[in-house]
Amino acid sequence: MSADVLIGNLLNPVILFFFLGLLAVWIRSDLAIPTALSRFLSYYLLFCIGLKGGAELAHSGLSMDIFKVLALALGMALLVPLYAFFILRRRLNLYDSAAIAATYGSISAVTFITAINFLEENQEPFGGYMVAAMALMEAPAIIVGLLLFNLYDRNETGGSARSPSVRQIVREAVTNGSVVLILGSFLIGIVSTDKSVHALLPFTDGIFKGMLAFFLLDMGLLAGKRLASLRGSGGFILRFSVLIPLFNAALIIGLAWLLELSKGDALLLTVLCASASYIAVPAAMRISIPKANAGLYVPMSLAITFPFNIILGIPLYYFLLNQILN
Amino acid sequence: MSADVLIGNLLNPVILFFFLGLLAVWIRSDLAIPTALSRFLSYYLLFCIGLKGGAELAHSGLSMDIFKVLALALGMALLVPLYAFFILRRRLNLYDSAAIAATYGSISAVTFITAINFLEENQEPFGGYMVAAMALMEAPAIIVGLLLFNLYDRNETGGSARSPSVRQIVREAVTNGSVVLILGSFLIGIVSTDKSVHALLPFTDGIFKGMLAFFLLDMGLLAGKRLASLRGSGGFILRFSVLIPLFNAALIIGLAWLLELSKGDALLLTVLCASASYIAVPAAMRISIPKANAGLYVPMSLAITFPFNIILGIPLYYFLLNQILN
Amino acid sequence: MSADVLIGNLLNPVILFFFLGLLAVWIRSDLAIPTALSRFLSYYLLFCIGLKGGAELAHSGLSMDIFKVLALALGMALLVPLYAFFILRRRLNLYDSAAIAATYGSISAVTFITAINFLEENQEPFGGYMVAAMALMEAPAIIVGLLLFNLYDRNETGGSARSPSVRQIVREAVTNGSVVLILGSFLIGIVSTDKSVHALLPFTDGIFKGMLAFFLLDMGLLAGKRLASLRGSGGFILRFSVLIPLFNAALIIGLAWLLELSKGDALLLTVLCASASYIAVPAAMRISIPKANAGLYVPMSLAITFPFNIILGIPLYYFLLNQILN
Amino acid sequence: MQAYKKLEIVINTLEVRRLVSLLNEHEIGGYTYWKGARGRGDRGLQDGEGLTEAFSNAYFLVGCTEPEFERIREPIRALLADAGGVCMVSDVQWLVH
Amino acid sequence: MQAYKKLEIVINTLEVRRLVSLLNEHEIGGYTYWKGARGRGDRGLQDGEGLTEAFSNAYFLVGCTEPEFERIREPIRALLADAGGVCMVSDVQWLVH
Amino acid sequence: MQAYKKLEIVINTLEVRRLVSLLNEHEIGGYTYWKGARGRGDRGLQDGEGLTEAFSNAYFLVGCTEPEFERIREPIRALLADAGGVCMVSDVQWLVH
Ligand SMILES: Nc1ncnc2c1ncn2[C@@H]1O[C@H](COP(=O)(O)O)[C@@H](O)[C@H]1O
Ligand SMILES: Nc1ncnc2c1ncn2[C@@H]1O[C@H](COP(=O)(O)O)[C@@H](O)[C@H]1O
Ligand SMILES: Nc1ncnc2c1ncn2[C@@H]1O[C@H](COP(=O)(O)O)[C@@H](O)[C@H]1O
Ligand code: NA
Ligand code: NA
Ligand code: NA
Predict the structure, then answer these.
(1) Given this model, what pLDDT does residue C158 score?
(2) By percentage, how much of chain A surpasses pLDDT 90?
(3) Would you say the CB of residue F27 lies under 6 angstroms from ligand 2?
(4) Which residue range forms the structural domain that includes residue B146?
(5) CA–CA separation, B256 vs B272, rounded Å?
(6) Which of D32, D56, D69, D88 is the best residue to mutate to test the F interface, defined by the most F CB atoms within 10 Å of its own CB?
(7) Is D59 helix (H, G, I), strand (E, B) or coil?
(8) Res C162 pLDDT > 70
(9) What atom in ligand 1 is closest to the CA of residue E29?
(10) Are C208 and C116 in contact (CB under 8 A)?
C-alpha cells in the first residue's frame, strides 16, 4: 500500500513536470518560464488555496482542533530554528548557521500546496484552518534566526550586524506579499457567500491542477539551476537538508498522535515543519545577513529539501501517519 | 432590499479582493502583480466581454434600443467633458481642467465589466450592444478636452500647445489597444457560429470571475499607490471626484426613464457616464498636455471615482433605477 | 462542401483573432501582448498538446502507423531543405538560401496546433504520436541547412562560417525549449494514469481554445509587424513562400495515399511539411549564419506562409485528402 | 580604438517612435534602447505603474561620430524641449572589431 | 551644454526604496532607474532567478551638478558600505533644452 | 575615489553565456548586465519581438582596472568580431566603500 502511494505520487503529472524541469536544466535546454509568470502562478496558487481554506472553515465552523493546530504550528516555528541553529553551529559559521536555521524553521508554500493536492487525490479530508497555520509559520523563524544572530554576533565579533532593525525585518516578514495574499484570500473565503465562492470554482478548482503542474515545471527549472552551486559543499550540508526535515517530521508526527489530530491536518502540519523556505526567508536574509552565503541556504531548501519532500517525503509521512493514527 | 444589494456587493469576493489590494498598500506589503500580467488580465477581460456582447447581439438581433443607447452614449461623451471643464476652471488651471474634463468624459472599462458582473449576479439582462456603447465613449472626450484646451490656450497664453495635432491625438485614441480589442472581439462575436462561441465558454465564462477578482486585486494595489499623491490636494478635488459621477448618473438615469431603457442597459450606461478613464485618457494627456498634473487626474479617477463606483455607485444606481423604471 | 469547410475555418473565432491582430497593426494600434505572455501562451499550448498526445497514445497503443508516420516525417524534414536550397540558390545568396531552406524544412508548432483544432472541430480522429512526429521534425532541417552552408561556403568563399560548430548548433536545436516541453509533456501523458490526466482536462482542454485564440491574436500582431520588412523584396520571395508549402503538401499527400495513412494523420503531416519555422530556426540562424538576412527568412515564414496555411492551407489540404483518401 | 560621442537619452516611452524616426532620418549608424525605466524629473514622478506605458521612460544609448552628433544635436534638443526628458553627452573610445 | 556629474549605481533591488529616499532627502534634481539587472560582485552572483527580487539588482543613473554630488557622495558611500553595490562617477555634458 | 575603466557592451542575448564565461575566465572582479535591449546596427534591426530572444540584445556594464581591461580587450574584440555588437570604453571614478 505504501509503495502504491509512492508510485502514484511519482506518476502524478504534477510531480513529473517537476522532473521535466530538472531534466531540462540537466540537458542545458533554454526552456525558461518568464519571471512575471512564475510570480503570477505562485500568487494564483495562494489565492486559490486561501479562498478554498476560508470557505471550508466557514462551512465547518470553529473547533478545538484549530487551536491545537495553531499552537503546534507556532511552537514548531519557534523551536525548529533553535535546535537547527545549534546543530549548524558545530560545522558552519555564524552567518550561515543563522540563515539556514531561519530557512528551515519557516515553511514552503509550494510544498504545502503539493501536499494538499496529494490529500485531495487520496480523498483525505483536512481543515480549512490549515491555511492559517501555514501563514502563521512563515515569519517567526526569521525572528528567531535574527535574534540568535544578533546575540552571538555581539558576543563573538563585537557586532557586525547590519542596520535594519529586527523590528523592521519582522515587519517585512509579516507584510510579505505571499502572507498577505493567502491570509487575505482566506478571510475573503470566510466572509463570502457559498454562491459566490461556487462561481469562482472553475478558476480556483478547475484549472488548479494544470496551473500547479506548470508551476512545478518552473520549480524544477529553478531547483535544477540552483543545484549547481552546491557542488563541493560537503556531506554535512546534504545530510542536514534531508535529516532535519525527517527529524522535524518525526517530532510532529509524534505530537499529532499525542494530540489526536486528524490524518489530513497532521500530514499538512508535518509537511510544513519538514519544509524549508526559499522565497521569504532568503529575501530577508539577503538583506539582513548579507554575509551569509546565499549559494548555500537557497539551494539547500530549494534543490534538496523541496524535491525530497514532494517526491518521497509526502507519501512517506502519509504512510507513517496511516500506521500511527487510528 | 437596497441594503441587501449593497451588502451583497460588498461581500462579493471580486470587490473584496479590491479591498485586499488597498489594504496591502496600506500596510506597505510588497505584494505586486507584474505589469505584464496586469496588461494580460485587462486584455483578457476585454476579449471576453467583447466576444460575449457580440454573440448576444447576434442572437437578439437589432432593435430600436440600440440606436437610443448609442445616441445617448455619444451625446453624454461629448457633453460631460464640456460642463466638467467649466466647473473645473473655476478652481484649477487650464492644463488640469482640460485633462480632468477629458478623464471624466471618457469611461472606465473595468468599472463597466464590474457592473456586468453585478448584473449577472442579480440576473438582470442587458443588451450585447452595450459593449459598442462603451467603445464609442472612450475617445470623444479626449477630443473635446483637447479642443477646449487649444481654444483657451490660444486665448490665454498665446498658445503653449504641444506639437501633436488634434488629428493625431484622435487617431491614437481611436486606435487605442483596448478599443481595438473590445470592438474586434465584439465583431468576432457577431460573426462567429454559436457552436464556436460555445466552445470558448470555459475560457470566456468559466474562469472569468476568478480573473476579474485577480485583476481587481491588482486595481486595488494600483489605487492604493495612487492615493498617496492626492494628500493635501484639497476638498474641491475630492468633492469633484464623487459629485460629478453622481451628477452624471442622475442625468442619465433621468434620460433612461424618458427613453424607456431596460434596467440592465440603463445601469450600464449610468456606470459608463459615472466612471472616469485611467488608462487611455491619462496616456493621451501625458503626451498632449504634459503640463497637466498627472498626480491629480490619475488618482482622482483611479483612487476615488473608481472605488466609489464599484463599491457604492453600482448598487446605488441599481437601486434608483429599480425605483424609477417600471 | 469544401467551400463550407473554408468558410467555417474563416469564421472560426480562433482564425478571426489572427485577422484582428493583422488589422491592429495595419491601423497602427498600440495593442501589444507582453512578450512574457506570448512565451507563456506558446508553452501552454505545447504543454497541452504534448500531454493529450501522450495520453491518447497510451490509450491506443502502438501500431504500424506510428512507424510510417515517423519515417515519413523524418524523411521530409531531411528532403525539403535540400530541394528548397537549390531552388533558392538560383536567385539568392548563399547565406539567405541556407537560412530559408532550414526555415522551410522545419515546422511551425502553432500551425500544427491550429490544424489539431481544425480536426477536432471537424470530428476527425488522429494519432497521439503525431506530437512525436512534430518534435522529430524541428531540428533536422537546421542540420541540413548548416551542412549545405558549410559545404558551399568553403567552396565559394574559402569559409566565412562562424565559430559555433555544427555539433553545438544541433545540440541547441535538440535541447530547444519547445522540443523539450512538448516531448516531455508527451512522455508524461504516456505514463500518467487516466484519472490524473482527466483531472487536468479543465486546464488542457477547457480553456484551450480561448488560449489559442488569444495566442493567434498575438501571432497576428507579430505577423503584421514583420510584413513591413518584406516590402520591395520581389515576387520570387512571395511565390516561394506560397508555392513551396503547396509543393510540399502535394508531395506528402501523394505519399500519404501510397502509405494509406488515416485522414487525420495525413492532414497533420501535410501541415507540418507545408509549414515553416519562425522560432527555433530563426534563433539558430541568427547565431550560426548571422550574415543571412533575418528581415527575409522570418517574415517569409511568419507573415506569408503561416497565415496562408492557417487560413487557406488547412481547409485546402483537408479537401484534397478527402478526395484522395478513403 | 576610436574616439566617439556617447549620447544617453531618457524620454517618455510613448515618444520612442519619434526618437527612433529622428535617428533614422539623420542616418545615425546605430542605437540601443530599452523600456521600463522609472524616474523623477521636472515633469514629476514616472513610477512605471498602471496599465499604460505613459508613466514610464525609455533609455537610449547612441554611440556616434562627432559629425553625426552635430547633425542630431539640435533635433534632439528640440524633441526634448517639446516632450521632456534628458540627454547627456560624453566621450568614449570605440573598440573597433 | 553644461558640465554635470553622472553617477551610475548598481544596488540590490530590495534597496531601491532606500536609495530613492536618500536622493529625495538630499533634493537631487532627478534620477532614472530600472530593475532586472543581474551581475556578479563581492557578494556573489545575482542571477535574477527565483520568486523574490532579492537576487537581482537595480541600476540608477543620476545626472547632477557638482554641489549636488558633494551632497550625496558620503551618504551613498555609506549606503553601499552597508548594503553592497557599486557607484561609478564620470563627467558628462548636459544638453540643455 | 579610484580611476577605473568602464566598458559598455551591447551584444545579442543568445551570446550572454559566452560573454559571461569570458569575463569569468579572465577573472574580472565584477559585472552587471540586463536583457531586453533593442537597437539597430550593422546586422540590422533587433526589435525584441517574437517568441525567441534571438532578436534582442543584452547590455553589459563592466567596471575594471586598467590591467583587467588590457586582459579582456582582445578577447572581447574577437567575440564582437564573430558575434556582432559594440563595446565602448571610458574613464570613471570608482566610489570606494
Ligand atoms: N538629473 C537627472 N538624472 C537622471 N535622470 C533624469 C534626471 N532628470 C530627469 N531624468 C529622467 O528623465 C525623465 C524625464 O525628465 P523630465 O522631463 O525632466 O521630467 C525623468 O522621469 C527621469 O527618468
Ligand atoms: N566591477 C563591476 N562592474 C560592474 N558591476 C559590478 C561590478 N562589481 C559589482 N557590480 C554590480 O554590483 C552588484 C553588487 O555588487 P557587490 O555588492 O560587490 O556584490 C553586483 O551584483 C553587480 O551587478
Ligand atoms: N552606434 C551604436 N550606438 C549604440 N548602439 C549600437 C550602435 N551600433 C550598434 N549598436 C547596438 O549593438 C547591436 C549589435 O550591433 P551590430 O552587430 O552592429 O548589428 C545593435 O542591435 C545595437 O543595439
Ligand atoms: Na519548516
Ligand atoms: Na464618464
Ligand atoms: Na516544413
Answers:
(1) 58
(2) 75
(3) no
(4) 3-324
(5) 13
(6) D32
(7) strand
(8) no
(9) 1
(10) no
Q: Write out the three cell numbers for A46.
A: 495562494
Q: How confident is the model at residue A63 (pLDDT cuts 50, 70, 90)?
A: confident
Instruction: Considering only CA atoms, give the Rg of chain C.
Output: 19
> How many angstroms away from the CA of A34 is the closest CA of chain C?
6
List of chain C residues whose C-beta atoms are within 8 Å of the C-beta of residue F55? 282, 286, 294, 298
Q: Do B13 and A200 touch (CB under 8 A)?
A: yes
What residues have CB less than 8 Å from C218, skipping those under 6 apart? C21, C33, C37, C38, C41
Q: How many angstroms away from the CA of B37 is the closest CA of chain A? A: 7
DSSP string over C99-152: HHHHHHHS--HHHHHHHHHHHHHTT----TTHHHHHHHHHSHHHHHHHHHHHHH
Ligand 1 within 6 A of E61 CB?
Answer: yes
* pLDDT tens-place string over residues A138-196: 989 999 999 999 888 877 655 554 556 777 777 877 888 999 999 999 999 999 998 89
- The answer to whether the CB atoms of C23 and B175 lie below 8 A apart is no
Distance from C-alpha of B141 to C-alpha of B144, rounded to nearest angstrom: 5
- Nearest ligand for residue E12 CA: 2
Q: Which residue has the cell 452614449?
A: B73
- Give the nearest chain D residue to B229 (CA atoms): D45
Counting the structural domains of chain B, the total is 1
Among all bound ligands, the one having the nearest atom to the CA of A112 is: 4
E57 phi/psi in degrees, rounded to 5: -110, 165
Q: Which of left, alpha, beta for B249 (phi over 0: left; psi -120 to 50: alpha)?
A: alpha
CB–CB contact C39 F14 (8 Å) = no
Q: How far is the CA of C248 from the centre of ligand 6 (A)?
A: 8
Residue C53 to chain A, least CA–CA distance (Å): 14
What is the spatial distance between Cα A272 and Cα A269, in angstroms, rounded to a whole number? 5
Dist. CA C126–CA A321, nearest whole Å: 46
Q: What pLDDT shows up at residue C2?
A: 66
User: Distance (Å, rounded) from C-alpha B248 to C-alpha B255?
Assistant: 11
Phi/psi at D60 (5° precision): -110, 140
Q: Which residues of chain B have pLDDT under 50?
A: 161
C210 Cα to the center of ligand 6, angstroms: 26
CB contact under 8 A, F37 and D33: yes
Angle, CA of C22, C28 and C30, to the nearest 5°? 95
| ipTM higher than the 0.90 cut | yes
- Give rounded-to-5 percent helix, strand, coil for chain D: 35, 45, 20
Q: Where are the beta strands (DSSP E) in chain A?
A: none
Task: Report which of C312, C307, C317, C313 is spatially closest to residue C19, judged by C-alpha positions.
Answer: C307
CATH number for the domain harbouring residue C153: 1.20.1530.20
Q: How far apart are the first and last CA of chain F?
A: 9
Q: Which three cell numbers stand for residue B21?
A: 489590494
Task: Report CA Rg, chain D.
Answer: 14
| pLDDT value at residue C125 | 95
Per the structure block, which three cell numbers stand in for B199?
466552445
Pairing of strands E44-46, D44-46: unpaired
Provide the residue type at B142 as one letter.
I
Nearest Cβ partner for A290 among E43, E45, E53:
E43
| Burial class of residue A277 in the structure, from the number of CB atoms within 10 Å of its CB (0-12 exposed, 13-18 middle, 19+ buried) | buried
Q: What is the CATH number of domain F2-94?
A: 3.30.70.120
Per-residue pLDDT at F50 exceeds 90? no
pTM to 2 decimals?
0.94
Enumerate residues 6+ apart whose C-beta is below 8 A from A253. A266, A270, A317, A320, A321, A324
